[in-house]
């Protein structure tokens, strides 16, 4: 078997074209242009690149975006006052604080300061709680992108055995909750899981978000499984790879996402989607 390679770039392009149309219509109808404020603390190179990509994606679909850069030495009160100003600014519909933050800043206190109605990352505890009870306003962008890819590929979710490798707040836990909400039977594995292969081999849909290159090898994958690789790892030779050994696993899976070009483009697309949802809610 050779897997169908899921074209995240193509799916993202189609969704962004639809978003551009929806944003133009919304602007014409209401006079409001959706606006995202991104707050970047410090000089982490990867974070800078992600933030620049988010700003460009906003412009490409006709949204406004503002990036506020703060020094790594920024104090908690300084950061909270920047968030407060964006919360109060009625022209801002979405607020995103790029993670990771410098170690001296308490992540939860920062995320909880963002207005629930502008929390387009879906990281505020209220929105996380919404995922748990199945009443979501903003779904976290990467898990939402995974779900959209599965839907776009017409891969059934209900009743399937889903194994999520990685239990982070950003990807693993919300992905598990969202797919459980779609009636999958979900298992979460993490760094302390004993005999990972025993779990992964049972997966009809395997979602891997562990941040470890080559964690998933072909013998760990069921024949015909759908493999979604959320990992983004830079190797010493500069290559970007996921967490899955793509070349061997593609011979066993029915579908597989490449890295780059799989889940990555969907994450920003869902951020744009959430920002439009926030802008619509602000005028209704
Ligand atoms: N860092 C890595 N992924 C994300 C994300 O989805 N949102 C934010 N705010 N920071 C991140």
TrEMBL record:
Catalytic activity: (6R)-5,10-methylene-5,6,7,8-tetrahydrofolate + NADP(+) = (6R)-5,10-methenyltetrahydrofolate + NADPH; (6R)-5,10-methenyltetrahydrofolate + H2O = (6R)-10-formyltetrahydrofolate + H(+)
Tetrahydrofolate dehydrogenase/cyclohydrolase catalytic domain boundaries: 6-121
UniProt xrefs under Pfam families: THF_DHG_CYH, THF_DHG_CYH_C
Its EC number(s): 1.5.1.5, 3.5.4.9
Keywords attached to this entry: Amino-acid biosynthesis, Histidine biosynthesis, Hydrolase, Methionine biosynthesis, Multifunctional enzyme, NADP, One-carbon metabolism, Oxidoreductase, Purine biosynthesis
CDD domains reported for this sequence: NAD_bind_m-THF_DH_Cyclohyd
Chain residues that bind NADP(+): 166-168, 232
InterPro entries: Aminoacid_DH-like_N_sf, NAD(P)-bd_dom_sf, THF_DH/CycHdrlase, THF_DH/CycHdrlase_cat_dom, THF_DH/CycHdrlase_CS, THF_DH/CycHdrlase_NAD-bd_dom
Described function: Catalyzes the oxidation of 5,10-methylenetetrahydrofolate to 5,10-methenyltetrahydrofolate and then the hydrolysis of 5,10-methenyltetrahydrofolate to 10-formyltetrahydrofolate.
UniProt record similarity statement: Belongs to the tetrahydrofolate dehydrogenase/cyclohydrolase family.
Protein name: Bifunctional protein FolD
């Amino acid at each position: 078997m050779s897997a169908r390679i899921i074209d995240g770039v193509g799916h993202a392009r189609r969704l962004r074209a639809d978003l551009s149309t929806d944003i133009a219509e919304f602007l014409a109808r209401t006079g409001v242009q959706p606006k995202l404020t991104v707050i970047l603390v410090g000089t982490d190179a990867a974070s800078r690149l992600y933030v620049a990509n988010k700003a460009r994606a906003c412009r490409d679909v006709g949204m406004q975006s503002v990036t506020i850069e703060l020094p790594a030495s920024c104090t908690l009160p300084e950061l909270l006052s920047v968030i407060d100003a964006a919360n109060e600014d009625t022209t801002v519909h979405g607020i995103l604080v790029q993670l990771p933050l410098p170690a001296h800043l308490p992540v939860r206190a920062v995320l909880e300061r963002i207005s629930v109605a502008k929390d387009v990352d879906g990281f505020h505890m209220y929105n996380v709680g919404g995922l748990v009870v199945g009443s979501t306003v903003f779904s976290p962008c990467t898990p939402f992108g995974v779900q959209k890819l599965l839907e776009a590929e017409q891969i059934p979710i209900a009743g399937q055995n889903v194994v999520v490798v990685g239990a982070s707040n950003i990807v693993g836990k919300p992905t598990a909750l969202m797919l459980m909400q779609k009636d999958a039977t979900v298992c979460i594995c993490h760094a302390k899981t004993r005999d990972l292969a025993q779990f992964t081999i049972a997966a009809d849909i395997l979602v891997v978000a562990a941040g470890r290159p080559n964690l998933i090898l072909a013998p760990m994958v069921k024949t015909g499984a759908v493999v979604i690789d959320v990992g983004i790892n830079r190797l010493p030779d500069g290559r970007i790879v996921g967490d899955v050994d793509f070349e061997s696993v593609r011979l066993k899976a029915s579908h597989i996402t490449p890295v780059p070009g799989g889940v990555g483009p969907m994450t920003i697309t869902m951020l744009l989607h959430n920002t439009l949802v926030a802008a619509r809610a602000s005028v209704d």
